[in-house]
Amino acid sequence: MDDIYFSDKPNQNKAKGKPAANDALHTTRDAFSGDPMPDSPKKKFVVQMPDRERDVVLRDRTPKGRPIASEPVTPKVPDYTPSTTSSFDDSVYLRPTRPQQPSMQNRPPQPKPTTSNRPRPAQQRPSAAGPQPGSAKRKKKTRGVSKAKVIGVILLVLLLLFTGLFAYGYAVLGKVSYDKDFSHDNSFVEAGALAKSAKVRNILCIGSDARSEIGGQRSDTMVLLSIDSAHHQLKMTSFLRDAYVYIPAKGYNAKLNAAFAWGGAKMLMDTIEYNFKIDIDDYLIIDFEGFKKLIDLMGGLDVDGVTEAEAKYMRDVVKIIYCKEGKNHFTGAAALWYCRIRKLDDDFHRTERQRKVMNAIMKQALHRSPIQLMKIVEQMLPMLQTSMSRNDLLAVGVSAVFNYIGGKKPQHQVPAEDTWSGQRINGQDVLRLDMEKNTQLLQQFLYP
Predict the structure, then answer these.
(1) Is 269 helix (H, G, I), strand (E, B) or coil?
(2) 361-370, long-range: CB within 8 Å, 24+ apart, which pairs?
(3) 393 CB burial (10 A radius; 0-12, 13-18, 19+)
(4) Separation CA 249–CA 268 (nearest Å)
């Protein structure tokens, strides 16, 4: 309160012009002490007192500002006598009445409001009191509709994309060589004697060594690719070419790969079904030239697990001087030589190398973009021959990819370990199989 002063100086705002002559005698003083206010650079807040109150204050105080002792004054209240007659007219304070509206009968016809000017219903008008009880539900319903629209648009885009890919794949698959005369019936096996399942599809993949310098062709690689949709697995079973089995179309025993040389894929499928009592749905053939081209189109193949003995054989015999133990990046020709190593060990290790390379091809294909895969497949398809139709081939390809990504990749070979013995028959080194044991193990592997 040190910055507040009450001034007795007359207010000059009331007088328009110069102050009166006697105003010059007045100075800015404190209303209570009477002392002049000190001059200070600090601005003070001055309260200007009205004239009437200033006179009362100055009259009841000494020049030093001390109040004068006086008797308490009791205000006189005049006597009041109620009058029986009142001259007060309270009609002027009555609430004015609303002017009477003209009669509806005398009003001219009014135009009907248009749709744009028509007032909204009461439930749609914004309320100043806040949201109504049903507004939250309406907002939630609107939000749900918008989400449904977004999901519908996404599904539509995916459907169009899938349709476009399906149409492109269907057109490209026309380059495959289809065996339209293929018959799945096996006349050497009774109906119902073969183990099969609606959730497992078996496709016999045959690597042919057909070459121009030799007559005919031999099945150098025989791998049964099983798509197990029940367990989300892609299984591979290798059949050794030196397995000594019965060829039902010929009526005598021979090496398994001889069936392909004598009667193609049909005789080979009938022979495997007859000896091991499993159902094979279709076949797929690719020659070695197509195998090399596939790997070269992929930019080479990363093969892991190469042993020191295999690396030395590749360097000394095949002249692949960069081959080393462990992981190697092979070209198409080098990968083919690696699969066909024969004199280093035995046919069991040979088929193991073949499965390793096939697994590396599928694994590396998943890291390619869809555009790159389409270009590779488009150039590879003319080198394929299959018993499947165009629709089946497309469906099998999609199913194989999804089951390969989502599940394990178990492997098996025929003959299994400790179920065979080496013999020399008719001047050939063959593998004599325990047919009952191998049949049981193969069926348990395919249909667990």
Answers:
(1) helix
(2) 361/294, 361/295, 361/298, 361/301, 362/234, 362/404, 364/298, 364/301, 364/302, 365/298, 366/401, 366/404, 366/405, 368/298, 370/165
(3) buried
(4) 10
Amino acid at 226: S
With pLDDT > 90 as the criterion, what percentage of the chain qualifies? 28
Task: Evaluate the CA torsion angle 374, 379, 382, 387 in order and state its sign.
Answer: negative
Collapse the DSSP code of 179 into the 3-class scheme (helix H, G, I; strand E, B; otherwise coil) and give the result. Answer: coil
Lookup: tokens for 100 = 């009477």
| Mean pLDDT on 57-71 | 54
Q: Are the beta carbons of 262 and 249 closer than 8 angstroms? A: yes
Instruction: Give 48's strand partners.
Output: 7
* 3-state secondary structure (DSSP) of residue 350: helix
Which residue's entry shows tokens 């609107």? 142
Whether the upstream peptide bond of residue 415 has omega within 30° of 0, thus cis, is: yes
Q: For residue 214, is pLDDT > 50?
A: no
Phi-psi region of 188 (alpha: psi -120 to 50; beta: other; left: phi over 0): alpha
Q: What CA–CA distance (Å, rounded) separates 338 from 288?
A: 13
**If we measure between CA atoms, which residue out of 383, 388, 414, 385 comes closest to residue 399?**
388
* Inter-residue contact 59 to 67 (CB < 8 Å): no
Q: What domains are there in the chain, each with its CATH number? A: 4-59 (no CATH), 200-298+368-446 (3.40.630.190)
Residue of 421, 423, 418 lying closest to 437 (CA atoms): 418
- Top pLDDT among 153 and 80 is at 153
Do residues 162 and 189 lie in contact, with contact meaning Cβ atoms separated by under 8 Å?
no
- What 8-state DSSP symbol labels residue 220? E
